[in-house]
Design brief:
The chain is elongated. A hairpin with a 5-residue loop joins strand 25 and strand 26. About 2% of the residues have low confidence. Helices cover 44% and strands 21% of the residues. By secondary structure, the protein is of the alpha+beta class. It has 15 helices and 26 strands.
């Protein structure tokens, strides 16, 4: 008996302690759950203000009917929202025009200013009014319409804070009802700025302000709407505003639905009214806009614990020795189950965290959306592909317009066939993306698709550069072979020309004597006098032509020489430009009679790679030549140091056909060309742009009003330090 009694008592004490601990933990969980529910309810209410701001931002001239329909829909969706209002910013000069415009909808509308003794400024000193223009629902027969929030110092302070910060501002508590049933609420002010206006500074925000979207909330309704979704557990709580002065912290008191009806010692005026001072309490804080609220929860006597074996300790104690073993086994099994459940929950959280880290750290942008294109989940904003907060928006709205129809076709095919598909698209910033669409099936049906976007810009550029390098390598081999084949006969021509020139001096004397002795005669059908004068010029012309052939061959061999890729050489830009013109001599003769190179003053060396810079200017000059509509049009190349002395400026200006305005934003995109029928690849400007960037320079393109194009290249000067 002693052994059994000791064992039973030990089991009783242990089980009771365990149950008390579990009940305490359970209450903390319930309190945390209600805190989250209230926080979510408040966030949903503030989201209604954001949604209304988005409507007015998208439709600045919205009428009352459209405003009312949209506001009623928000009021039906977000419980706890007392009133939604649109408050435009009306300058003093537009006050009468504003009243006349409003009276077309509300005949009795007038701008009403509040006489407040704390406002020392006369009404004429206020330059901007903030009257209630639209409100839903209409309160007190519309008597509040036209009330100027700006005439009340507390409201004006909220408006100024919201305007300067550009974010939502929430007031302290306001009294909605008077008397014994007084209730408190709050007001949220959210600024609306002009579309497209700069709002990076407070001054710019004040200049661009269009008005305020105002939401009025009844705190009791917010609490009831949030907590009503939860199961009654016998918990009451107090809501306080920690940002308010000491006497104004109280916001609302929520009594448990399990509290029996009848007189209650609880009051809605202050915390000391609680009759369970000894009961445990849990206090948590959370932000509401720029303010901080707290919720303090306390269990009532009717608190419902989820523990189903509350009488277990007494059964163990009463059962005595016969139930000792059974109770011991029960406790062991209970603890084992609790630990297993906690371990499973912990493993599930760790697994979810690992999956989230993997999902968010993926170098690709991943998003899931439904058949209508609404984004359900996304990992992050990848390289600016989509903005933050894209969830709920249409996926196709973020794609270039020219690719939206194609993407929708691919998505429809994935939903219908259940097969993966992919497409490639380019953006206005010259980036290229590989987009894979993978159907997500639930019970055999495609419920959504996962879009995986991979940036392949560098890959495409590398492929294009590899193709170009291969062509240049092949061209280099051909040039080296052709140069060798040309140099051999050209050397022979130059050698024979020099011998012929030396021999001509002796031949002239013989011919002159023969002419004196036998009179005039012809050489090759030309009179001897003309032959004696013209033949030296012919021989000199042959020698000059041979020298030019030698120069051209040398330039081609220089172009075909392998590029080490180093960018730290001192490059003579004048020599590079002259070399480019020499290489493009045949193109110049083909397209223009006026192609000039002007070097304003001696140029200091620039830092870079001479072969890569030759490639840049060959591409730019060749593009300029090929854009000329006729030979009389000119191409001008100017090189001069900039006044700051840090860059050399090279201008390539043509009188060509120019580029259509709608295509100007694409000229630097890889593979974009307006001469595809002439064999253009669309890589010249793109490669030139990236080479100039790699040299630490800048490339700018300016278009004339009618025709013609200017390309300006700025390259940093060489500094040996």
């Amino acid at each position: 008996m002693v052994t059994g009694l000791v064992a039973s008592l030990s089991a009783f004490l242990m089980l009771k302690s365990e149950l008390d601990s579990r009940q305490s933990l359970e209450f903390q969980w319930v309190a945390h759950n209600r805190n989250n529910a209230l926080k979510k309810g408040i966030e949903d209410g503030l989201e209604a203000v954001n949604s209304l701001r988005d409507l007015i931002d998208a439709s600045p001239g919205i009428g009352y009917e459209a405003f009312s329909r949209y506001a009623r829909a928000l009021l039906g969706r977000y419980r706890g929202v007392h009133t939604l209002e649109w408050v435009p910013a009306v300058t003093a000069g537009l006050r009468e025009a504003h009243e006349r415009e409003a009276q077309a909808t509300f005949p009795d509308y007038h701008l009403i200013e509040r006489a407040d003794s704390s406002d020392r400024r006369p009404a004429s000193a206020r330059q901007t009014y903030f009257p209630i223009y639209y409100m839903e629902p209409m309160r007190q027969g519309g008597d509040l319409l036209g009330f100027d929030y700006g005439s009340s110092p507390p409201y004006r302070e909220l408006i100024e804070r919201a305007t300067d910060s550009g974010r939502m501002v929430v007031s302290g508590r306001i009294r909605l009802l008077q008397g014994e049933n007084s209730q408190y609420g709050l007001q949220a002010f959210l600024p609306v700025y002009a579309n497209g206006a700069a709002i990076s500074t407070p001054e710019e925000r004040r200049a661009a302000l269009q008005g305020m979207v105002v939401g009025v909330f009844r705190i009791a309704d917010l609490a009831n709407a949030s907590i009503s979704l939860l199961e009654p557990r016998g918990v009451e709580f107090l809501v306080s505003d920690e940002s308010a002065p000491h006497g104004e912290k109280f916001l609302d008191f929520y009594a448990s639905r399990l509290t029996p009806p009848g007189p209650s010692v609880h009051t809605s005026s202050a915390h000391p009214g609680w009759d369970l001072e000894a009961a445990p309490k849990v206090t948590e804080s959370f932000p509401v806009a720029e303010r901080v609220w707290s919720i303090t929860c306390s269990p009532t006597r009717q608190f419902r614990s989820a523990e189903s074996f509350r009488q277990g300790p007494w059964i163990v104690l009463a059962g005595g020795l016969s139930l000792t073993l059974m109770m011991a086994l029960f406790v062991v099994n209970t603890r084992r189950g609790m630990r297993a459940r906690l371990r499973m929950e912990e493993e599930l959280r760790e697994s979810e965290q690992k999956l989230r880290v993997l999902f968010d750290q993926s170098p690709d942008f991943i998003a899931t959306h439904d058949r209508e294109g609404r984004i359900l989940l996304s990992n992050r904003s990848s390289s600016g592909l989509f903005p933050e907060g894209a969830t709920g928006q249409r996926f196709t709205d973020f794609l270039p317009a020219r690719h939206q129809a194609r993407y929708q076709q691919v998505v429809d095919n994935a939903f219908d066939s259940g097969q993966s598909d992919q497409m490639v698209f380019s953006r206005e910033d010259s980036s290229w993306w590989d987009l894979r669409i993978v159907p997500l099936k639930v019970a055999g049906d495609v419920e959504a698709v996962m879009a995986i976007a991979t940036d392949v810009t560098e890959k495409r550029l590398l492929e294009a550069q590899a193709i170009r390098n291969a062509r240049l390598a092949s061209l280099g081999a051909i040039v080296a072979s052709v140069a060798h084949e040309i140099n051999n006969p050209n050397n022979s021509i130059r050698f024979n020309t020099s011998i012929l020139m030396r021999s001509w001096g002796d031949i002239v004397e013989v011919l002159r004597k023969f002419c004196e002795e036998h009179g005039e005669f012809s050489i090759g059908g030309v009179p001897v006098d003309q032959a004696l004068d013209g033949t030296p010029r012919l021989i000199d012309g042959i020698d000059k032509s041979a020298r030019r052939i030698e120069t051209i061959v040398g330039t081609l061999k220089h172009m075909a020489r392998p590029d080490a890729g180093e960018l730290n050489h001192a490059v003579d830009l004048a020599e590079v430009l002259n070399s480019c013109l020499s290489i493009l001599q045949s193109q110049i003769q083909k397209y223009s009679d006026d192609c000039r190179l002007e070097i304003r003053e001696p140029l200091v060396p620039v830092r870079g790679n001479p072969q890569q810079l030759e490639q840049v200017f060959i591409n730019l000059i060749q593009n300029a030549l090929e854009s000329l509509p006729q030979r009389s049009c000119s191409v001008l190349i100017q090189a001069e140091p900039e006044t700051e002395g840090e860059f050399i400026r090279v201008l390539v200006r043509d009188q060509g056909r120019g580029i259509a305005e709608e295509l100007r934003g694409k000229v630097l995109e890889p593979f974009f060309t307006t001469r595809s029928e002439d064999g253009g690849t669309g890589l010249g400007l793109s490669i030139a742009y990236r080479i100039v960037q790699s040299h630490g320079g800048r490339l700018e393109i300016q278009f004339g009003p009618d025709r013609g194009t200017e390309v300006i290249v700025r390259l940093p000067i060489y500094n040996s330090v």
